[in-house]
Amino acid sequence: MARTRRRNILPGFGISTGLTLGYLSLLVLIPLSAAFLRTAVGGWEHFWTTVTAPRLIASYKLTLGASLGAALINALFGLLVAWVLARYEFPGKSFVDALVDLPFALPTAVAGISLTAIYSESGWFGKPLMETLGIKVAFTPLGVLVALTFVGLPFVVRSVQPVLEDLDKETEDAARSLGATRWQTFTRVIMPTVLPALLTGFALAFARAIGEYGSVVFISGNLPLRTEITPLLIITKLEQYDYAGATAIAVVMLVASFILLLAINLLQARSRRYQEL
Amino acid sequence: MTRIVQWLLVGVALLFLSLFLVSPLVAVFAEALDNGLGLYWESIKESDARSTIYITLTIAAIAVPLNTIFGLAAAWTITKFDFRGKNVLLTLIDIPFAVSPVISGLIFVLLFGLQGWFGQWLADHDIQIIFAVPGIVLATMFVTVPFVAREVIPLMQAQGREEEEAAMVLGATGWQTFLRVTLPNIRWGLLYGVILCTARCMGEFGAVNVVSGKIRGLTNTIPLHVEILYNEYNYVGAFAVASLLTLLALVTLVAKKIVEWKTAQ
C-alpha cells in the first residue's frame, strides 16, 4: 500500500521548514518560555500570594465576566448579522459586510478613545442613557462590556457566515414542506449545522476579550478593585518595577489563553468534520 | 409574513451594527473635526506627529518584510509537503493571536530589560533594546507573525501542488517555480496579508506600550502618541492623529473587498 503514495518532487522542504521553525522559536517560543521560567525561579509561595491578591481577584472577575458577557452578546447578534448577510439582499449589503471587519482593522487605542467619547456622560449615547435611564457606561464595568463587544464581533460573524452560505437550502425547504414551523426549521435543521462554528466564534471572541487592553483602558477608568482588567495590572506591576509580580499574572493569563486555544482547535476540527460530511 | 420577518431581522442587525461599529467610526472624525478642517490640520502638524509617523513607518519597514518572508516559508512548508505535526505547527503560528498584547511586550522586557536575562550583558555593551526602537520592532513582529501566513496558507492549500509539480517536471528550478507559478497564483491574497500586517504594525498599542517608554521623538509611535495627547486632554489633537490610523483601517477594509472581488473572478 505504501508504494502507491506519490513521491513529492517539490524542492525547498528543508529550507522553508528550517526558516519557519527557526523564526517561530526565536520570536515566539523562546521569549514565551522565558516568562514561565522566570516564574519558576520566583518560587510557588510568591507566585500564589501575587496572583490571589484581592485587587487581582477583582480583576479576574471583571475580565472573565465582561469577556463572557461580550462573547454571549456577540454570539447572539453575530449570528443574526451573519444570517442577514448570508441570506438576504438589502441596499448597502456589501458595505455592511466590509464594515464587520472594522474591529480587526481599527487600532485598539483608537477604538478605546472613540468609545469613551461616545459613552461618557456628555457623549452621543452616554448622555441620553444617563438622563433617561440613569445608566452610566463609561468608567464602569458596563463600559468594559461595550468595548469587548466591539472587539469580538467579527470573530463570530466570520466563523458563522461561511457555514450559513454553504448551508443547503433544500434541507430547509424539505423541513418546511414536511410541516415544520419556521422556528422548528431553525432549531432542528439550521442550528445543529451552525453550532460548531458558532461555538468557535464564541470561543475566539472570548479569548480575544480576555487579553484585550487598548480598547478597554480608556473606557474603564481603571478604578482599583472596580474597573481594573487583568492585563492592566501587568502594566501596573511593571511600572513599579515588580517584574516577578507582572510575570506571575502573565503566567496565569497565558495558561488561560492556551487552554482556550486548545478548546478552539478542537472545536474547529469538529466543525471542519461537520462540513466535510 | 416572510418579508416582514426578513426586514425585521435586517433592521435589528443594522441597528446593532450602527450602535457598535458605525458610531465609533463616525465619532473619530466628528471629534477630530470639532473645530473645523483648518484646525484639524493645524493640530496634526502641531502635535509633533511627524516624528511619531517616521518611527512608526521605520518599524513597519522592518517588521512587515520579515513577517512576509516567514509567512511564505511557512505556507510553502505546510501546503506543499506532508509531515507529522503539521497541526501543531499551525497552532504555533496562531499563538500570538491568543496571547494578550501586554504579555507580548512583557516577554521582551523579561529578556532584554535592565533586570532581564540579557539585561546586564546588554548594559555592559551599551546596547539598548527595551525603551528603544529594537524592542518596539520585536514586540510588533511578535504580534503580527500570523498575518501573512494566515492569508496565504488557505490560498495555497486550495491551489494544490499540481501546477508546481508540472513546472518542476518541465525543468524549472525551485525558485523559478516559486516566482513564476506560486507567486502569481497567490498575489492578491499575499497583497492583502501584507496590507493587513502593515496596518497592524502601525496600529499596535498594548505590546508597544510596554516596551516603548514613550520617549518623545525617539520611541513614540502613532498609537502611543494618541494616548499621550488624550491623557493631556488635547482631545482634538488625539482624535486628529487617531483619524489618520482610522483612514489606514478603512484602506485595509477596501483592500479586502478588492481582493475578494479579484479572487472571485
Structural class of chain A: mainly alpha
**Quick one: how many beta strands of chain B?**
0
Q: What is the oligomeric state here?
A: heterodimer
Q: From the helix content, strand content and strand pairing of chain B, which structural class follows? A: mainly alpha
Order of helices and strands of chain B: HHHHHHHHHHHHH
Overall 3D geometry of chain A?
A: globular
Point out poorly predicted stretches of chain A. Answer: none
Mean pLDDT of chain B: 92
Mean pLDDT of chain A: 90
* Helix proportion range of chain A: over 70%
- Name the overall outline of chain B: globular
Number of helices of chain B: 13
Low-confidence stretches of chain B: none
What's the number of helices of chain A?
13
- Beta-strand content bin of chain A: under 5%
Overall radius of gyration of chain B = 22 Å
Helix content of chain B: over 70%
Strand content of chain B: under 5%
Task: Output the keywords.
heterodimer; A: mainly alpha; 13 helices; globular; B: 265 residues; mainly alpha
Description of the molecule:
- The two termini of chain A are about 25 Å apart.
- The longest helix of chain A has about 35 residues, at about 55-85.
- By secondary structure, chain A is mostly helical.
- Chain A contains 13 helices and no strands.
- In chain A, helix 8 (about 140-165) crosses helix 10 and helix 9 packs across helix 10.
- By secondary structure, chain B is mainly alpha-helical.
- Chain B contains 13 helices and no strands.
- Chain B is globular.
- The longest helix of chain B has about 30 residues, at about 50-80.
- At the A-B interface, helix 1, helix 3, helix 4, helix 5 and helix 6 of A face helix 1, helix 3, helix 4, helix 5 and helix 7 of B.
